[in-house]
């Protein structure tokens, strides 16, 4: 094997901006480049992070396992809980209980025809009253209602009885990743970037900082958030707005600490293993349950509601809980940077683009951006073939997520406010989505694989069924022969769901035990590595 070093090898990288995007980039690049590249992260002390409760996708398991992060460790440190899916409330506008679910997992298929059982459920639904699609075809819904953990007490890290993701404290996660990055040799500078210098090619040559002078690197990662300090301001990459199809451009965030007993009384129960998205008058409210508090927010459109009215409505929605907690008001830009990789700079996170977090795709886009960057990692020649392919990947993903989120709005039957009437009658629907919607009026998604690169066919069916959008008839193929085996599959789903409900522990109890086991392990490690006798302490005091 030829081990001759490439003289054009990238040797230095500067990341501008901290938060989850910046520090995850630092940990990821340090790991994938095997510590052979000098990585510096520059962040300003003047720019804080929102630190909201954030929901994720199951892909984070793969990413964190790849990075060698202990699931028990980071979950305990980041106030994290499990997420089995999303509960949608008041979206369709129907008079019946207006609730549907988008769970994780896999949709079972017909053993004879190899098509999703959603097609068989639909045929029965068009003929007679049936249990809701999500309850009939997924085990997760029953477990969500029972507030069950996806893992047994003896489950290994990143493994469970059913597929899951996480709820986490974004501020705590950034702090955790910062520690990991710095211990891996990432250089950390707290300073303001005053200016960006370009060379004769239009590439970034160095950054001019307030206290640390010029900072030079071969490659730059823009994690500066909505400012797009490098990609938009310095390199003048334009921002492509999605405001014509996604109206929400503001958010309010309120964190509510749990009161004593709040997780145990009959009204509030334990910690929900799911996120909730409740449609309000001019947008929707999120609820992300963490271990010690809940993260809550209202994503709304400033074209239809003022900031003060939005906060008033949101606090009313919260039943006056958290009235003593401050509200953080956030302005967003909805859309994407035209080229998230330009010259010698890649934008990761909010500088690359933003789509409202209805389907918990924020951290996923950071994961994808980093994975695609490593797969197309350049040398100093910066071949445009690499950046062009990278930009195609990111563009397609932003458009796929945009289309999926738009679906939640354009299929509504709500007409009770100007916001919802505009979404129903006057929204611009991208051609890429409109073609699918026309097809789905005749036939629901038939393939198991992803419609694009992220969401599988059943994800779209969950929204279609939840919104009451059914084809005029079932799949003609199902008129041939009998399909008793498919009925058995649906019965087995219900049976396994009941079995898991009996076997799996309570969500909150599992998290408590996980935290306790983790602290015991740390305590034993401290005792083993200490040269001096440790003072006797009550372990329960440490855990608290």
Using the 3D structure, state the CATH architecture of the domain at 12-82 and 167-240 and 337-400: 3-Layer(bba) Sandwich
Question: Could you please say which CATH topology of the domain at 12-82 and 167-240 and 337-400 applies here?
Answer: FAD/NAD(P)-binding domain
Main pleated-sheet profile: 7 strands, mixed
CATH uppermost class of the domain at 12-82 and 167-240 and 337-400: Alpha Beta
What percent of residues are in strands?
Answer: 15-25%
Structure write-up:
With 544 residues, this protein is an alpha+beta fold. Among the domains are: 12-82 and 167-240 and 337-400, FAD/NAD(P)-binding domain; 107-162 and 431-503, no CATH class; 513-543, no CATH class. Helix content is 36%, strand content 19%. The protein contains 17 helices and 22 strands. It has helices at 19-32, 59-66, 71-77, 118-127, 133-137, 140-145, 170-183, 229-234, 307-317, 362-375, 384-410, 418-425, 431-440, 457-466, 484-503, 507-529, 539-543; strands at 12-16, 38-43, 53-55, 81-83, 85-89, 99-103, 165-169, 187-190, 193-198, 204-209, 214-216, 219-222, 239-241, 250-257, 275-280, 283-289, 293-300, 328-331, 335-337, 341-342, 345-347, 353-354. The strands form five sheets. Strands 6-5-15-16-17-14-18 form a seven-stranded mixed β-sheet. Strands 8-2-1-12-21-20 form a six-stranded mixed β-sheet. Helix 3 packs across helix 16 (507-529). The chain is globular and about 70 Å long.
List strands and helices in order, with pairings.
Blueprint: E1 12-16, H1 19-32, E2 38-43, E3 53-55, H2 59-66, H3 71-77, E4 81-83, E5 85-89, E6 99-103, H4 118-127, H5 133-137, H6 140-145, E7 165-169, H7 170-183, E8 187-190, E9 193-198, E10 204-209, E11 214-216, E12 219-222, H8 229-234, E13 239-241, E14 250-257, E15 275-280, E16 283-289, E17 293-300, H9 307-317, E18 328-331, E19 335-337, E20 341-342, E21 345-347, E22 353-354, H10 362-375, H11 384-410, H12 418-425, H13 431-440, H14 457-466, H15 484-503, H16 507-529, H17 539-543
Parallel strand pairs: 1-2, 1-12, 2-8, 5-15, 12-21
Antiparallel strand pairs: 3-7, 4-7, 5-6, 9-10, 10-11, 13-19, 14-17, 14-18, 15-16, 16-17, 19-22, 20-21
Helix pairs in contact: 1-7, 1-10, 3-16, 10-11
């Amino acid at each position: 094997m030829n081990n001759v070093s490439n003289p054009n090898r990238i040797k230095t990288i500067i990341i501008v901006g901290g938060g989850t995007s910046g520090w995850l980039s630092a940990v990821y690049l340090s790991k994938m480049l095997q510590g052979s590249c000098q990585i510096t992260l520059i962040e300003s002390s003047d720019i804080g992070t929102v630190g909201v409760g954030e929901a994720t996708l199951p892909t984070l398991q793969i990413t964190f396992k790849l990075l060698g992060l202990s699931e028990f460790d980071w979950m305990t440190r980041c106030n994290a809980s499990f997420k089995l899916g999303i509960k949608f409330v008041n979206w369709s506008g129907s008079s019946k209980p207006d609730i549907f679910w988008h769970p994780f997992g896999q949709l079972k298929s017909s053993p004879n025809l190899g098509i999703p059982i959603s097609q068989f459920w639909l045929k029965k639904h068009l003929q007679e009253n049936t249990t809701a699609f999500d309850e009939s075809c997924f085990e997760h819904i029953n477990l969500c209602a029972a507030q069950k953990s996806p893992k047994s007490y003896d489950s290994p890290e990143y493994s469970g009885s059913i597929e899951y993701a996480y709820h986490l404290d974004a501020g705590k996660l950034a702090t955790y990743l910062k520690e990991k990055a710095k211990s891996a040799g990432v250089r950390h500078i707290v300073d303001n970037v005053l200016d960006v210098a370009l060379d004769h090619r239009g590439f970034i040559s160095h950054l001019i900082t307030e206290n640390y002078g010029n900072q030079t690197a071969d490659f730059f990662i823009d994690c500066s958030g909505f400012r797009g300090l490098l990609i938009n301001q310095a390199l003048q990459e334009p921002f492509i707005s999605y405001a014509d199809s996604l109206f929400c451009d503001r958010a309010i965030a309120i964190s509510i600490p749990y009161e004593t007993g709040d997780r145990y009384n009959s009204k509030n129960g334990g910690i929900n293993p799911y996120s909730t998205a409740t449609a309000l008058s001019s947008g929707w409210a999120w609820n992300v349950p963490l271990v010690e508090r809940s993260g809550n927010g209202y994503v709304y459109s400033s074209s239809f509601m003022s900031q003060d009215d939005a906060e008033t409505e949101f606090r009313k929605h919260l039943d006056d809980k958290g009235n003593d907690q401050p509200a953080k008001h956030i302005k967003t830009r909805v859309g994407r940077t035209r080229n998230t990789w330009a010259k010698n700079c890649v934008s990761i996170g909010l500088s690359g683009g933003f789509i409202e977090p209805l389907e918990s795709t924020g951290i996923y886009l950071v994961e994808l951006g980093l994975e695609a960057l490593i797969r197309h990692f350049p040398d100093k020649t910066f071949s445009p073939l690499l950046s062009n392919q990278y930009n195609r990947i990111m563009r397609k993903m932003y458009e796929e997520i945009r289309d999926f989120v738009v679906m939640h709005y354009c299929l509504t039957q709500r007409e009770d406010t100007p916001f919802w009437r505009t979404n129903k009658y006057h929204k611009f629907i991208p051609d890429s989505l409109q073609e699918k919607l026309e097809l789905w009026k005749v036939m629901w998604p038939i393939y198991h694989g992803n419609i694009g690169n992220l969401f599988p066919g059943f994800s779209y069916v969950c929204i279609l069924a939840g919104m009451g959008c059914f084809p005029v008839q079932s799949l003609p193929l199902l008129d041939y022969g009998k399909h008793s085996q498919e009925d058995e599959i649906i019965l087995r789903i219900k049976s396994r769901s009941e079995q898991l409900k009996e076997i799996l522990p309570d969500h909150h109890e599992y998290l408590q035990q996980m935290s306790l086991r983790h602290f015991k392990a740390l305590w034993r490690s401290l005792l083993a590595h200490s040269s001096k006798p440790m003072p006797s302490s009550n372990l329960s005091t440490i855990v608290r």
